[in-house]
Amino acid sequence: MIEEIIISGAIAGAVYGLLALGFTLIYGVSGVVNLAHGSLYMLGAYMFYVFGTLGFSGSEPLLASFLALILAVVFVGIVGSIAYRLTIHPVIGDEVAVMVVTVCLALIFQQLVMSIFGTSFPPVRWPEGSFLLISTSILGVTVQYSRILAFLVSLGLFFSLLVFITKRKIGKAMRAVSQDREVAMLMGINTERLYMLTMALSAMFAAVAGILITTSTTMSAGAWMWLHPLALSFSIVILGGLGSIKGSLIGGFILGYAEQIVAIEVPEGGAIVGVVPLVVMVAVLLLRPKGLFGKRIEMEE
Amino acid sequence: MVMKYFRRAYSSFAAHVFDIPPRFMAFLFFITLSLIPLSGLNPYYLNILIYANILAIFSASWDLLVGRTGQISLGHALFFGIGSYSTALLSTSFGLPVWITIPSAILIGSLAAVLVGFPSLRVKGPYLALVSMAFPLIIWRIIKWAPLTPIFGGEYGIRGLPRFFPLVLPQLRVAEYYLSLVLLFVTSIIIYKIANSKTGIVFVSILDDELASKACGINVTKYKLMSFIISGLIGTLTGSVHAHLFSRTSTPANFELTLSFLPIVVTFLGGIGTIYGPIVGAYIYSILDKYFLTDLLPKLLRDNLRMTLPSEFEYAKFLIFSLIVLILVIKWPRGLARFTTDKLEDLEEARDLDERGPRIWKRYKKKEKK
Description:
The structure holds 2 protein chains of 2 kinds.
Chain A: H1 2-30, H2 37-54, H3 61-91, H4 95-117, E1 135-138, E2 141-144, H5 145-167, H6 169-179, H7 181-186, H8 191-216, H9 227-240, H10 245-265, H11 269-272, H12 275-287
Antiparallel strand pairs in A: 1-2
Helix pairs in contact in A: 1-5, 1-8, 1-9, 1-10, 2-3, 2-4, 2-8, 2-9, 3-4, 3-8, 5-6, 5-8, 9-10, 9-12
Chain B: H1 2-19, H2 22-35, H3 43-68, H4 77-93, H5 98-121, H6 126-144, H7 149-152, H8 169-196, H9 198-208, H10 210-215, H11 220-245, H12 257-270, H13 276-305, H14 313-331, H15 336-356, H16 358-369
Helix pairs in contact in B: 1-15, 3-8, 3-11, 3-12, 3-13, 4-5, 4-6, 4-11, 5-11, 8-9, 9-11, 12-13, 15-16
């Protein structure tokens, strides 16, 4: 029991951290609360299915699957940055308008998916017979290789983002813009292009998280699947503090463990798991209104 | 050349419109609405108007909180759902009449507003929006939870709520229409009175600059909570009335995100932070949605082009509204009706200038063109 909670909580926590990473990144850099983040997650899963069915026949099925993953992630990144440029960019700076616009985007993506795919649930899974669907045993808990892959990829992406943001020039520019936009502009940073890049990066993280989570849990996509990840990502981000990268990983682990404890210990807990992140978030906000590592708030002019 | 005459004609028209006081316009509007059922309209179309009235009240309650006090709420479905479920539970399990269940639902709703308001007051800006979005999602999940099905009815909700009036169909719809109209009238007057009182001015000052209002010695927390309670109260009222009027069921759909988003669509169609905005928006929305897209357009296509719309069109409808709101927010962030009235006011100013000094006006116009 305890082992199961430890292992599956760690896996869920790492993937949730990845999911929240994109949300916190775009907020930290440009101050946009992107409520379409869950839709980008959904779009990632759907695109993985679409590019998978296109079939790069003749090649190895697993290789084709990875190719589909990369194509889907790049596609969602492009969609994210285009959506940013067309809709969020004109209203940036106005909080209410940004939120209304992103909710609109989320609903548009959902309705688009509904009107294209109908009410069917397309399968989002690794190809049959690949080693990713085989289970192994860690500490006496059976775990599929796909979940281990999700865990490793999430941690890998998280640490590569940390390195990117501290060592590379663009990463440094991102941090500079998040600290002070005007001064960063005076230093010759093209903030508009940087925002688009950040949005693309954030959308790509959402898409990767979407594919990894869907392939290791439900294995099918649906038009309503964006709601739970959105709730999750904003709970994690508020828990860890908006705009804090470290906070998103720690918040992800907290919620991952909390969810697993409820799912395993509470009878009929599977259905109520969706409430856990929201309740944890409200409880934390009552105690600490800024979250655990919050930075970019209380900015009184 | 033509444009010049056109503009002159338009500005003289605007002058006549502006000579009518707004109160008289509102009076005229309500008189027209109350005369509609006398024309013997089909009960189906009356349904659309009842829906528009309910939606207008709901959107007005959202607008009071967001458009006037500036507390961004993305979870207004919470109050709608609480109203709907509390009246359903009271009337089906205790057999209470409608005239008792709705006031008690409103009481429960204002209690919920206090409970939600307190944690929400500690946070602001994006945090507040996200927290407010969380509450209806929490209740939505709990209501659908399997062990609670005997109480809340699970996925299908609670059925068999009583009607307002024990009448047969045509008269029933007319009576219900008048009920919704009276409710709309009363809530509009209440919101108008609040907006023009000292409290309303304080609300707007919180929207403009919270820090400055604090510095003026205003107890910001008290007024924010007050705004939450008034808004929640009216929202609960609409939820409970809607549950008795339409399909007489309370389903988990009453807590869905789409419903939280509906008042935003409606208010942006009309105009944010106004009395008439939600009403105009609600009428535009319901006539477009329930009449034009579900009734008129399929009929026209069937008769003229022998075409039937695919069943996916049901989903595409909300897509159209989302797109409209997206364009509205980007192009005219203050709403469609408000944009029009602002334009009219600009024209009136221009007319004043025109009368006072044509030369100054011309110079001003030239400068503007540059």
